[in-house]
Amino acid sequence: MSQTDSLSAVDFEVSAxxxxxxxxxxxxxxxxxxxxxxxxxxxxxxxxxxxxxxxxGIHRTVKEFMISADRVGAGDYSEFFDGVLTSVxxxxxxxxxxxxxxxxxxxxxxxxxVFSPFSGTLFIDSGGFKFLNNDGIDGxxxxxxxxxxxxxxxxxxxxxxxIVNLDRPIAPDDSHEQRIEKARKTGENIEEFLRLSSDFxxxxxxxxxxxxxxxxxxxxxxxxxxxSAETLCSSFDGIALGSLVPKKDDRSALIDAVIDCRRVxxxxxxxxxxxHVLGISSRAIPLLTALGVDSFDSSTYxxxxxxxxxFVSLMETVNVSEADFEQCxxxxxxxxxxxxxxxxxxxxPYQKDRLGAVAMxxxxxxxxxxxxxxxxxxxxxxxxxxQYIESTxxxxxxxxxxxxxxxxxxxxxxxx
Length: 416
Ligand SMILES: [Zn+2]
Known about the structure:
It is a single chain. This protein is of the alpha/beta class. It folds into 2 domains: about 5-40 and about 90-305, Queuine tRNA-ribosyltransferase-like (TIM Barrel), CATH 3.20.20; about 310-380, no CATH class. About 40% of the residues lie in helices and about 15% in strands. It is built from 15 helices and 13 strands. An 8-stranded parallel beta sheet has the order 4-11-10-9-8-7-6-5. The protein has a 3-stranded antiparallel beta sheet with strand order 1-2-3. A two-stranded antiparallel ribbon has the order 12-13. Helix 13 runs antiparallel to helix 14 (about 385-390). About 50% of the residues are buried. It binds zinc ion (ZN). Zinc ion binds next to helix 13.
């Protein structure tokens, strides 16, 4: 065991498998999360102050659910916040002043009184996706240049349980040379990241980029010029597959990428590490889970709500004005107060509250499906998960062929 291992109390235990799918527990210090699981994307700091739960429009309303605020009926929603992902880049999405930015990173999120009801696993990504595609970030009257040192400093000060190195995601139209150049810069960051975070007591995830086997293999080959494969293996606690955001609605490309990713991880000796896929659409969850992905993050619950979309199921959305709240027994739809907000915008204090209630309902639908999927895998045979996919993804015409492909590839095919 290396010195870095002994400092961190990170453990990933797989308790059951079904084909390529696996279920288990990721423990980081005192925090535990069951896998496979979904980390909803949430901005903790949205321009406001403590009195407004640090603001952020619809994000504020979701945070009020998270902390059981009186304003949203004081229900207990903590089980749906067993993991949350927030981005370093979200800190400056709201044109904050330097003073406010400094305040936001002054204390760990979970140690602030206002957020103390939140005890889930906090994943803070590096923000590379956003910053580096925009040539730096703009505050209202200051500039923070995000390099590896700054990104880690922010992750640490905000009290992350899971962090990733600062990376340079590839774009679909990058040339081979551009991809190698990005891998080289990510390699430099990884070397610095491991040095800076050697006493970090949470989990460190290595970002992996590529759409297929040869791209991911080339990426790892390039970064091992900066850090040996042995060091990567002993220092990192998980893998975060990135660069798939531009392909998040291309089911076929996602499936190819994850199948190839599992092969690359196996060939490089990383297959025991938990595999996270960054920034996907939640409808892809059942199939990617069947392929062996352990966690996801998604803002679909929020983005759908912002467009007035109410989940009838993981696969089906209706406009909230057409929703039948009687059909849902979730705590949002069961609350007279919140149903009133969703039914008629005149009832809600603000539009963000109406849509925030819808977002919370959407998140509950997703989290309940995740729990069902874990139950299927816990049975240690493929049939329950195949049945689940048949009754959900395969019922949806555009995704049926992908469901069949995944069942044949990862779950041993259909029995007669
Ligand atoms: Zn509901």
